[in-house]
Amino acid sequence: MTIQRSLIAAAIATALTLTATPNARAEPQAGAIAGEALSVGTVVGRVKESSVGASLDGAIISIDGRQLATARRNGEFRITGLAPGRYQMTVDYLGYHSVDTEVVVPADSGVQVEVSLHSTVGPADATTLDSVEVRATRDAQALALNQQRSSTNYVNVVSADLLGQFPDNNIAESTQRIPGVSIERDQGEGRYVTVRGAPKEFTTVTIDGVQLANPDNLSRGVELDTIPADVIAALEVTKALTPDMDGDAIAGNINIRTQSALDRDGLTLRASAAQGAFELGDGDNERYNATIGNRFGADENIGVIISASRSKQERYTDNVEATFADFDGVIMPEVVEIKDYEGTRTRTGLTGRFDFRIDPDNLVYFIASDSNFEDREFRDTLAIELERHEAGSNDVTGVAGRATFDKELRERTYDKSIRTYNLGGEHWLGDAWKLDWQVAQSKADKTTSPRMQYVFRSQERPRMAYDYSNPDFPVWTILGVDDAPATGVNLPEDWYEFRRLNDRYEYSEEKENSFRVDLTHAQDFLGKSGDIKFGVRSRQRDKLFNEERHRNGESDDFDALGISYSDMLLPDSWSNNFGHFLTGRRFARDIFGNYAGQLTGSSNHNRLVADSITADYTASEDVHSAYFRIDATWDKLTLVAGARYERTRLEGSAAEFNEETEEAIPQHASRSYGDFLPGLHLRYEIDQDTILRTSYSTGLNRPDFMHTAPYRIRGENAWDNVSVGNPEVEAAYAHNFDVSYERYLRPLGLLSAAAFYKRIDDPLFIANSFETWEVVNPDDGSIDIVNQRITRPENGDKGSIYGLELAWQQTFDMLPGALSGLGVYANYTWAKSNAELPFGLGETELPGTSRHNYNLALTYEKSGFNARLAYNHRSEFIQEFNITNPELNVFWDGRSSLDFTTSYRFNTGVSIFGEVNNISDTRQVRYQGQRNRVLEMEGFGRSWLVGVRYDY
């Protein structure tokens, strides 16, 4: 962390001190030099924009009216097999003036070409920055649309500069702006990504093609809140996999593309610093980032770039939870938890990239990235357990014959990191063969320490009436106790006595080593031109989770401290969530440092052996694959076909604990299986700006790693879930069908429609059930009924997801005067899913399927001023299934958010900007079965930032 912060500070300081306006650079429209190292008939080139020399990936290159190449990474393209002579070369790029130039192919060598394009905002012959209006958002939109237009399969691309115009804190939040992509949040902040209504585990995440390891021990869904939004070049969302891509992505793949110094001419220098606050709790909100890079060497063929980012957020959250359970056929509230969260989230990211273009035929690169997320949190909780419900009680009103009250303070810090290292190369072996290779490692870890919790329990166990007529703001009334409050749960402090101190440690780690080799060869037996490609890939992934739990429940040890419950509370700080749930004074934050040492050092601080052993597990998954792919082109039609075979070997280990003998019994499970994954993609170019695509692809969703181990993990409280493994659960297999129509608008825009259907065999569910047993209460010897919720992965028989995506984005440069700065960015996705539940229990939708998702952003960019008002909505979706009683299925309610960002750029390259998040102050709600059974309501308020940015 110290090295990261030093590099960030150095990069920002360097950037902010270089404030002189760069000299404008004049470039020829096209320059051509003989390439002695190139084979005869080969044209190698680069397409860039004229003002700063940024590469224009996705440019379409035609020779004598025939489209022959597309500019790829660094704006580079390659055309082979041309006879010596003179040719008319046309370069076309949305948002830029097309260029026609003459290229002469020598008789004894190849030729290198460089083409500079000018934005349609200015004149086609502009040669200086003064004659071109710089509009960064517009140029970023052009980059994304051109890459999408030239792709052979269905891909959505969003550049980092465009994403930078949205007030997003991390990669997860950035993806929600893409058609068909939605997110799941934690305390208001995006964490998991779902694509096209599929579960989050159906989507893979890569950095430059390297699959990310996952710090989460519970799910394959990558926790994308770990990665800052400021260290990327673009997001590429592939929704129809080609055979050369890993097959474990039923919904799609999100590729985070890093920046390269070879992406533009000369020096790359950007930096920003911003400060703000969160409305709830008035916590600090700050963000810093910087990027510095340059090209070196006599031919400027070496590129080095470093990007760094750091943010710190002091977040406060109001949270109320109520668990409902089935009591002899009547659903009633069982547990209520009123929680205040006070936390500091610190996010840092560092990415470095080295590129060496040895010659036109050979490139090697090395990429390293490190993202870290630390969350330090205090949580005040009042937990109420409702028991012995009286006759006539239901899920709206009733009386609990006994209510148990616990006041708790938990201090928890977790630190999670994702690191990737990627060494690779691209090599042309003559004109017919191309070799690509990559060796990579991705490693993620998450440490939770400290995780300590004081619990104080009320000695009164009164009757309590409840009224959920307003499910968001219920009313509780304590009955038959003289000194109880008239209504509410702000109990007298002298009711509480020490119950226990919990001490917990968690560590999870996941590491994947991977290797791939791809060979591409030109082919002429199918179509007028094309390639055949084949390769192999090996991925070895290992995962482990370790947990330790200790507890001291000895009241004599607490009494020896010489303090009372009231002494541990703050004098003038009250818990009053949403201005409605008053629960008393908050705990002082120093009570762990001041008092926990004597409790943990006591002989009564015991290890919970069973919980510490049964929670641990290890898992490994080795995937070896081979594929072939053929590309063929006829005038307007392009075909991509092929197949992939993946062989999977998985193992998992855990332990059971025999309570009678106090012995740990090792458990082990393993399985091997293979999958054949064919695919077919067609792209038809009706005209240069109208494209029709259709595809058939296949994909897998392997079980979460922990589910391959025979584990059993308990929560801290009696009412918490117990998670159980199922090593026999199968991987889901999907057949995917996609069709899309895209109309690209001049000067810059897109209208598109896409339909999709996924047929899924053996869909995976996290199913809930209840185990019920009688226990003797140690306080009074009475018999209590305990309903323990068990979660376990299970396979359904079959399922499907289908839907429609619509998108419209456009700049209105054609309008007169000030109106030419207007723009719109809008998309809508309708999705529906169904799946057969395990054990023949009927049908339901898949977890994560929201029927409606849409984004609408109104934009304005003119004369250095930029503004964007963005609205995002996701409708309700199911999260968990209760196979014992479907009326208790868990749903996320729909949520909308409204965000605003604005900036003004001066001619010096300096900009000032401001952001406001969650303008409408919307809450987040989960419920069980129906909306009146609120499982969780969370409020986190608005936030804002103002800052300064420098861009060379």
TrEMBL record:
Signal sequence, renumbered to the chain: 1-26
Subcellular location: Cell outer membrane
Pfam families: CarboxypepD_reg, Plug, TonB_dep_Rec_b-barrel
Ranges of residues in domain TonB-dependent receptor plug: 148-252
CDD domains associated with the record: ligand_gated_channel
Residue intervals of the TonB-dependent receptor-like beta-barrel domain: 480-919
SUPFAM superfamilies, alphabetized: Porins, Starch-binding domain-like
InterPro entries noted in UniProt: Beta-barrel_TonB, Beta-barrel_TonB_sf, Carb-bd-like_fold, Plug_dom, Plug_dom_sf, TonB-dep_rcpt-like, TonB_rcpt_bac
UniProt keywords, alphabetically: Cell outer membrane, Membrane, Receptor, Signal, TonB box, Transmembrane, Transmembrane beta strand, Transport
Membrane topology summary: Multi-pass membrane protein
Nucleotide-binding in keyword set: no
Primary location recorded for the protein, binned into one broad class: membrane
PANTHER family in the cross-refs: PLUG DOMAIN-CONTAINING PROTEIN, TONB-DEPENDENT RECEPTOR-LIKE BETA-BARREL DOMAIN-CONTAINING PROTEIN
Entry similarity comment: Belongs to the TonB-dependent receptor family.
Protein name: TonB-dependent receptor
Source organism: Luteimonas terricola
